[in-house]
Fold Serine acetyltransferase.
Amino acid sequence: MSDAVDVQVSDPLADVRLRLPSLLQLIREDIGCVRLRDPAARSELETLLTYPGVHALIWHRIAHRLWGAGWKFPARLLSWLGRFLSNVDIHPAAKIGHRFFIDHGACVVIGETAEVGDDVTLYHGVTLGGTSWSPGKRHPSLEDRVVVGAGAKILGPITVGRGTRVGANSVVIESTPPEVTVVGIPARVVRPELSHRRVVGRIDLDHHLMPDPVGEAISVMLDRVEFLEARLAHLQKRLRDGNGPMREGGDAARPGPRAVERT
């Protein structure tokens, strides 16, 4: 009598199934954090059914597990479906931590090698993009508790420090220290850690410190116009007093030959 041979059939989705409870826990945390950061959210059911940022994140959580299990094409297909339904583009390989919130969920792009820590908030129009076509790390890393304002672009393999706030429409191309506010194009630190305002129930992105290059250029032009008007008034006064305009050396300017002919 021959010994029985145990035949083990490999299940490519076994790892995904084993991780399913943690996946559901992540999704519960993603839904629960919305009510803490958005006063418009009235219930978890409303959040689950009506928030496109939550929908995009659910699609990504599943696609990311498929990607990690080696199911690359189904992961990309699921990611594309999530983008089609939510207008949020998250590559399935992107690593996203706990309690991630995309507010207003529209036109957000998160690249393949991007890494996002815990308790991070992105507003609409944010891009976590790359700056090269070479393989390897080419997208930014956001540490815990980072808040990124609407329309901001964070580009390249840089690190945004823990608790940093990025102002709306800023372009961040260099790593930032933790617990600061950065605004502008390119982004610069406008409020360091020691002077950071902590307002209960409010996200302070210090938008009033956003540099205004157009306003600065107009201010310089107005200062120049004021100087020229004062100069002109001084010359007109000298002409009325009969002294005539002055040369650079301090002598009164003599009339030219055409002026003599007219007299």
